[in-house]
Amino acid sequence: MVQKAKILLVDDRPENLLALEAILSALDQTLVRASSGEEALKALLTDDFAVILLDVQMPGMDGFETAAHIKRRERTRDIPIIFLTAINHGPHHTFRGYAAGAVDYISKPFDPWVLRAKVSVFVELYMKNCQLREQAALLRLQLENGQGRAGAAAAQEPAGLLAELSARLAAVEEQAEALTKQLDESADAAAVATAAHLERKLTGLRRALDALEPGTGSGASPLPSPS
């Protein structure tokens, strides 16, 4: 069963959180509320999130300060942040949002369809990256087990495992290719860059698998990190 991605919604107004939940419920993912920057940072200590929707204007720690803390942490620095704001102070205000590490900056009232589409892209990229991590971890485990065995049976079993892993990786590659085709020129630059990064990791993993095939001669090659 595929685990759902978590989306962090940060806003000090309960009615805004309720509205976001209504818009994003169709994505069928896990929506996590935070009513302040401090509460958001606490949630990020224990859970992994696909994307963060962050209100700019909040009492105490505002959205910009919260984003700065998120980007300083190694665990959370790569999580996409979409800023939501009810005001627009011009290009300088927008630039501050991007400088704080946001992948997008949306003014309220926003189009629910547009917001849902933007969030869905980052959710899908997150899920594909999770699949890649799982495949790499499984391959490492099987290789470690295979290296500790001897005899003809041990020689045949890794070959079967490699074939299975190759087939699983092919499925992920096919999904990643389909996702990349969906990102046209109008897509967010951050989403395109993330998809390209995912494709590079998939290519590295495919090369490592190919090098392990019988007859290629190189034995266990170091696997690319899926991070």
Written description of the protein model:
With 227 residues, the protein is α/β, with parallel strands linked by helices. It is 58% helix and 11% strand. The protein has helices at 14-24, 37-46, 63-72, 91-99, 112-147, 152-182, 189-212, and strands at residues 6-10, 30-34, 51-55, 81-85, 104-107. The protein has a five-stranded parallel sheet with strand order 2-1-3-4-5, sandwiched between helices. Helix 5 (112-147) runs antiparallel to helix 6. The chain is elongated, with a radius of gyration of 21 Å. The two termini are 23 Å apart. The relative contact order is 0.10. Residues 6-123 form the Response regulatory domain.
Summary, kept brief:
Helix content is 58%, strand content 11%.
Task: Report mean pLDDT, rounded to a whole number.
Answer: 78
Oligomer: single chain
- SSE sequence, one letter per element: EHEHEHEHEHHH
Query: If strands are numbered along the chain, what order do they take across the biggest sheet?
Result: 2-1-3-4-5
Structural class of the helices, strands and pairings? alpha/beta
Strand fraction equals 5-15%
Helical run tally: 7
Shape: elongated
Helix content: 55-70%
